Amino acid sequence: MKANELPGNVISGVKPTVNDIARLAGVSLATVDRVLNARPGVRKVTIQRVNKAIDELGYIRDTAAANLARKRFYQFVFLLPDSNSEFIDELETQIEAQAVTLANDRTHLLTRKLPAFDSQSIAFALDELQPEATSGVAVIGPETPAVRDAISRATERGIAVAALLSDLPSSPRDHFIGIDNTSAGQTAAQLMGRFIKADRGSILVLTGSRLARDHLERRLGFDAVMREHFAQLSILPSVEIRDDQPLSDIVLANAFSETTDICGIYSTTASNAGLLEFLKQRSEQAKGLVVIAHELTPLSRQALLTGSIDALISQDTGHIVRSAVRLMRATVDAVPHNALQERIRIEIFLKENLPPETPAD
To answer: Which of 92, 198, 269, 307 is in the most buried spot, having the most CB atoms within 10 Å?
Structure first.
């Protein structure tokens, strides 16, 4: 064989075709098509021969052209919590914007709101999805047996599953899209410890739900750094506010009545309306507090500017949605993805480095 030739006399620099695969593997075009599309009726030894030819030729399938020829549409569903959260509202806005962008790319995006932290509702919604109508689903939910088992059933039906914001590693989900929440908690601890000037005091930690893995991981990262570097400060047990403003007021009032030396608050949840209203109404108790929170929203932006929040740890909702779509498509098409492109980075915002506010439509 000449140096500038590939097996089967395919000349180097020329994109190999299915005809080249068939010739090198010694099979028909119909057999190659069955293997490429994972259809039944092909012996294992023949599949191995075709795949060996694909590897030797360096064949890369044009999935866009294949989908167009098969008149294939992608339909991806986003299961979002129905909560009073500006961050979830922003995520939904980004999904709607991406749906418009992808309208001519044979890709449909749908959203469905479910009760926040409600495992049974999420499991039921997952079980309703059928592969004939749904290519993939991105879900925000707690890591419970009900959700895990529903995800397992969805993947068995051939539906791609992505966990958004909060990972579900005990389930057979295909991808996780979100920041490293343990690192986010560690970052919050560094900011908290450096901002607090007191020699001693207590830190109050707020969580949306003790079942939310992202909130739990943030707490674990926060505790690890505080113990190692800022041991003079005491970390109080997490209090659950479930993204509910009236509940937030009650649990915060109880916390401050029971502990008189609170000098900092770390909110692991993205829903901070209740916290900010409490601080506004009780300005004397809020005086001198260091507050570290999550997610840049209109409300938290204003709180940064006024000093009610000292720092925000955030993630880009547009990147999250685009990444979810790319990863679900890659799973459906069984093609590789660029892991670096899909990495969601931790962003830290102070009032001095806030990005320009996006004009309202």
So the answer is: 269
**Gap between the Cα atoms of 240 and 243, Å rounded:** 9
Residue whose tokens read 């922003």: 90
What are 252's two structure tokens? 């915060």
Q: Is 45 helix (H, G, I), strand (E, B) or coil?
A: helix
Those residues whose C-beta lies under 8 Å from the C-beta of residue 294, and which sit 6 or more positions away, are 87, 184, 218, 267, 268, 269, 270, 272, 312, 313, 314
**Where in 35-181 does DSSP place strands (E)?**
74-82, 107-115, 136-139, 160-164, 175-177
Mean pLDDT, rounded, for 190-219: 94
* pLDDT given for residue 3 in this prediction: 38
Q: Report, in angstroms and rounded to the nearest whole number, the Rg of the chain calculated over CA atoms.
A: 25
Is the per-residue pLDDT at 119 higher than 60?
yes
Report all structural domains of the chain as residue ranges with CATH numbers, in order of start.
5-60 (1.10.260.40), 73-178+317-342 (3.40.50.2300), 181-314 (3.40.50.2300)
Other beta carbons within 10 Å of 359: 5
- Report the distance separating Cα 139 and Cα 116, nearest Å: 12
Residues 59-101: pLDDT tens digits? 766 655 555 445 468 999 999 999 889 999 999 999 999 999 9
Start-to-end CA span in the chain (Å): 63
Lookup: tokens for 24: 């090198």
**Distance from C-alpha of 158 to C-alpha of 155, rounded to nearest angstrom:** 5
Q: How many CA atoms lie within 13 A of 296 on its CB side?
A: 21
Nearest to 312 by CA among 343, 287, 347: 347
* Whole-prediction pTM: 0.81
